[in-house]
Design a protein that fits this description.
Number of strands: 15
CATH architecture of the largest domain: 2-Layer Sandwich
Bound molecules: uracil
Largest sheet: 9 strands, mixed
CATH class of the largest domain: Alpha Beta
Distance between the termini: 22 Å
CATH superfamily of the largest domain: Pseudouridine synthase
Strand content: 25-35%
Radius of gyration: 22 Å
Number of domains: 2
Oligomer: single chain
């Protein structure tokens, strides 16, 4: 494995930043200083040190969290009272949340240190399906449902077609293939509705199921195979 890759796997930095760190001479492998980013490391045998502290390439970790309300989807925010990172044990502080839910939105949130997967799940090109349960301030009219499903203009451009299944009273389920900022709230607001509660229950092949609010679990091998 290239030294640059080793550093990024150890969660030290991105690959690009790793090259800068390596060139600055802070890395030692076994007993010699190495400043070449493409230097080959054998993770089984070599001991790699950054500023004299041993570093290890980390396993990839995939966690599903049932995000509670009042929690910010960010890694660090000096203004947030609580972030998704506070919902996990400290040993997972190297993970990153995939995408964003609003502070008051609850539900399925994925956290991982797999940069490739983060890119895949968040890039518009991959069109990952997301399903939300929505509670409105009043029942959605049939004609408004049709307008929303076709796509409506919010600010700069139209939303992509989506699917809405009406539930009891003012509840419904909406399936989106895009993730613009505050998209669902803005879609309904455009037609004069207020979103009273919003919960993400599915993202691609992942299903929140019965995971209780505020709890987390590792993804199963089967789930991983599907989302990969
Ligand atoms: N749409 C919103 O308006 N908010 C979310 O958190 C997710 C989708």
């Amino acid at each position: 494995m290239r030294l640059q890759v080793y550093l990024s796997k150890a969660g030290i930095s991105s690959r690009r930043q790793a090259a800068v760190i390596i060139k600055s001479g802070k890395i030692r492998i076994n007993d010699r200083s190495v400043s070449e980013p493409s230097f080959k490391v054998d993770p089984e045998k070599d001991k790699v040190y950054l500023n004299n502290e041993r570093i290890f390439p980390r396993e990839k970790v995939y966690i599903m969290l049932h995000k509670p309300g009042g929690v910010t989807t960010t890694k660090k925010d000096p203004y947030a009272t609580m972030t998704v990172m506070d919902c996990l044990p400290q040993k997972f502080s190297h993970l990153n949340p995939v995408g964003r839910l609003d502070k008051d939105t609850t539900g399925l949130t994925l956290l991982t240190n797999d940069g490739k997967l983060i890119n895949k799940l968040t890039h518009p090109r991959f069109n990952i399906e997301k399903i939300y349960v929505v509670k409105l301030d009043r029942r959605l009219k049939q004609e408004d449902r049709v307008r929303l499903e076709k796509g409506i203009r919010i600010e700069e451009r139209c939303t992509a077609p989506c699917r809405i299944i009406l539930g009891e009273k003012s509840n419904l389920e909406i399936t989106l293939h895009e993730g613009r900022k505050r998209q669902i709230k803005r879609m309904f607001a455009k037609l004069g509705y207020k979103v009273k509660a919003l919960k993400r229950i599915k993202e691609g092949a992942l299903d929140l199921g019965t995971l209780p609010t505020g709890r987390w679990r590792f993804l199963t091998e089967e789930e991983l195979a599907k989302i990969r």
